[in-house]
Amino acid sequence: MGYVNTDLNEGAVPAETGATGIRRVSFHTLGCKLNRSETDALAAQFAARGYQIVPFRQPADLAVINTCTVTGEADAKSRQAIRQAVDQSRATRVAAMGCYTQMHPQEAAGLEGIDLLLGTRNKFELIDLLPELERRPAGAPLVRITPTGEDRVFDEAPSISATDRTRAALKVQDGCDYACTYCIIPAARGVSRSRPLADCLAEARELVQRGYREIVLTGVNLGAWTAGNLVFDDLLEAVSNVAGLRRIRISSIEPNLITERTLQLLADRENICHHLHLPLQHASDRILGAMRRRYSFADYRRKVDRAVELLPDVAIGADVMVGFPGENAEDFEALAQALADLPNSYYHIFRYSERAGTLATALAGSVDPRVRRERAQVLREIALEKQRAFARRFVGQTRTVYFESRTGEGRWSGLTGNYLRVLVSSSDDMAAQLRPVALLRESGGSLHGALLQGTLSRGASLPGASLPGASLPGTVAA
Ligand code: SF4
Fold this sequence. Notes:
By secondary structure, the chain is an alpha/beta fold. It folds into 3 domains: 142 residues, Rossmann fold, CATH 3.40.50.12160; 223 residues, pyruvate-formate lyase- activating enzyme; 85 residues, CATH 2.40.50.140. The longest helix has 24 residues.
C-alpha cells in the first residue's frame, strides 16, 4: 500500500441539520489510501447531515484525525497531528481514530486535550457520539475501541465515500489474513473482510451518477476480496461493466494474488487502467522468506514480465523495504540491481522500522539505522531515474488525461490511465475533465503537455490531432 499524509479540505456545506453545538468539522488523514477513503466517507456523512467541512488547522468545533501506525514515524506524525489540533484552540473538540489509537489506546488517551478515541472498527460511530461528547467534561476522553476480533463481517459504512470532485475510492475489503513479519496492520485492522458484491456495485453506480469518472478499488489486501465462489477478478469484471464508468484503477494488489485473468481484464476492458501497484519489498529470497512474503523474486519477475508482454504501456509500481533484519551488503546490492533491471515504472522506498508486537523485532541481524538511511537514499535515486525513464518513453505521444487540480504555478495537473503525471497550461476550469493531451517534455518524472481538441479512446486514432512541434502517433490510449 502507498502512504499519504493529507488534509481533507473540500468545499464548505452550509450547516443546517447538525444535532449538536458542533457545526464546523475538519479532518486530517495519515497513512494509506484506504484511510483516506474512510475519511472521505465520514466527511460525506457529516456534509449530508448539514455540518460544515472546513480545512484542517482552520477554526473548527471538531477536529478529526484519522491516524496510522504502519511505522514508528507514522505513530509520531499521528501524535503530532493530534497535538496540533489541541493547540489550535481550547474550544475545538479533538477526536482521534484508526490504527494508531487501536494499537496504542493508553498512550493516545494520555495526550493532553484529546476528547474522543475511536478504534479501527468504530470510526463510523463518530457522528452518533457527538451529543455524548459534548456532555463530557474536558480531560475525560470518551473511548470506543472494539477489539479487531476474528469475525468476517464487513463493517457498515456510509454508502458513498467520495467528497473529491474527480476520483472516488471504493472500499471493497478490509483487514488481512497474511502475517508478514514486519507488519502491524493485521493486528490493527483485523482479519480479511469483503464487502458484498451487490453493495460494491450499488456504490459504483451511485458514484457514476454523481459524476465520478474514475473509481479506485481499495482495500488492505485487495486481492483477497471474495464472496462465495467469487474472487477479486469477478469483482473487477463486474465493476468494469457498470455503465458510464470511464476508469477503474486497482490501488495495490499482492503479487501472489494477481492472475493471468486479472491481466487479461486489463488488456480487454477499455475502462480498466493499465496501472498495477505490486508490492515487492525485497529481491533476496532469503529476506522475502524472513518477511513471510508469499512469492519468490523469480515469481515476481514472471508476473511483471507477463504484464508488460500483454500491456506494453503498463505502469507498474512497487513498495520496497530496505534494512530488514539480516540484510547484508550482498542482499542490498542484489536489491539495487533488481530495481534497476525490473520493468517497473516507480518505487516507494521504505526504511524498515521496528514495530512492537511484530515477529521481525525478534529477528537477528539488525541493520544499523544509519546504514538503512544510506541504502534508502541509493534506492530513491534509482527510483527517480526509473520514473523519469518511464515518463520519457511517452514524450511525443498523445494520451487522455483526467484533470484534478490546479498547481501553485497555475497549471492543471492530472493523470493518464497509465499513471503519468501530466501538467498543462489552461485558464479554464479543467477539474474532472478527460482531455487529450500532446506530451511534449519530461521534467522530474512529470510530463508537460498541450491540450488538444476532441476525445480519445484506447486504440482509436484522434482525428485531426496536430500540434506544431509535436509528433503525434496515430494511435492513442486512455
Ligand atoms: S499483506 Fe502483509 S504487508 Fe500487507 S497488510 Fe497483510 S500482513 Fe501487512
